[in-house]
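Subject: Aldehyde dehydrogenase family protein structure
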Amino acid sequence: MSQTTPTMAALTDPRTGTERLSVAVGRARETGAAVAAARAAQPAWAGLTPRDRARRLLRFADLIEERSAEYARAERAGTGKPAAEAEGEVGNCADLLRFYAGALRADTAPAAGRRMPGRESWVRWEPLGVVAAIVPWNYPLMMAAWRIGPALAAGNTVVLKPAVTTPDTALLLARDAAETLGRDVLRTVPGDRDTGRLLVADGVDAVAFTGSVAGGQDVAARAGLRRLSLELGGNCPALVLPDAPDDTCDALVWAVTYNAGQSCAAPARVITLRQNHDRVVEGLAKAMSDRRAGADFGPLNNADQAARYDRVIESSAAGVDHVAGIAPAPGEEGGYWRPGRILADLAPDDAAVVEEVFGPVLTVQAADGAEEAVALANSVPQALAASVWGSDTGTVLALAGELNAGEVWVNCHLDQTAELPHGGRGSSGHGTDMSVLALAEYQRPKTVTVRIGRH
């Protein structure tokens, strides 16, 4: 009896550009089996008391931390991140799971009580069932934790589909979840876009997707009326006022080169006033000249992303282009290294402004005043995150309120913690990652009302 030959995907080391291993790609048989197994495991997982479910999540976090070196190696294999970045993200993953282990025991529902004469009412928060979590390649472990943490805490089981280029840590998560949470509470199915489409079609109860706008639209079309949580990109503005702190340029350059700028919340579009434009361009160029791909930050993730970066840069008509250096380690010259860049003197519709480069690139635009600066900041469809840099408290807080973004920083950028929500607007999607608010993404309320007495 013949068996179907599995479809294999070749995985590349982004630091060298060479093949590192191959992995079987999930197809209808694999996605169907994973969803069926997760559905069978869900009632028992949801039936645990909050205390017992929290204990298992805490043990899961402990095991990730105990095996942190293995996780960091796996994360670096798929992304090429520097060791310090990978190690920090493993720690963040464990911290997030511990946060939700505690959050699930906090009562966030409306208090029970007598809301109508002769009636006693309360609200139950119930899990959705089986959640498909489809996560991208830029933060394979951390994006998985953002999705599976609240979903598991709420009593759902999860089928995790990592990006085809970065399945390494997702497979470790499924292994360690089976040891600590229970069999099939968390399943991982490696694969490509077709795998994700099959997973959505397999009757899951909700889909949590982090990725491109086009990918999110495809998921939404296939999911129908099922619950969706979508995080779809940023192209984030940073408003730099004339009285911005002295470390502003250094901070923005660090933020756009962390993970090689492959972060939806990274700064992308610096917007100044006319009077400080040239000073900011000079400061950013100086700061970027001290950050070299290979020595200070990692490569782009894959050949398609590198080609996209090249296309956007080549399409840009920027009059000013400050290019930093590249310093790959010996033997890594063929990797997807791209230099940090500062682009200025560009039109509002320049390709590097309207498209999210998703790389170590900052564009700089000048506005005639604060009102025009806000208009430029809000001029793109994405509305995920933004920052404001200045010394006058009233001014920066007023501008923060006018920016159309789900998260705004003042005199900092990319500062996040499990207690604070993160989510987008507009074409950046909808839904909430992190904080206790994210639990509601994976629950549904049920009101129970009981008649008391004979009348």
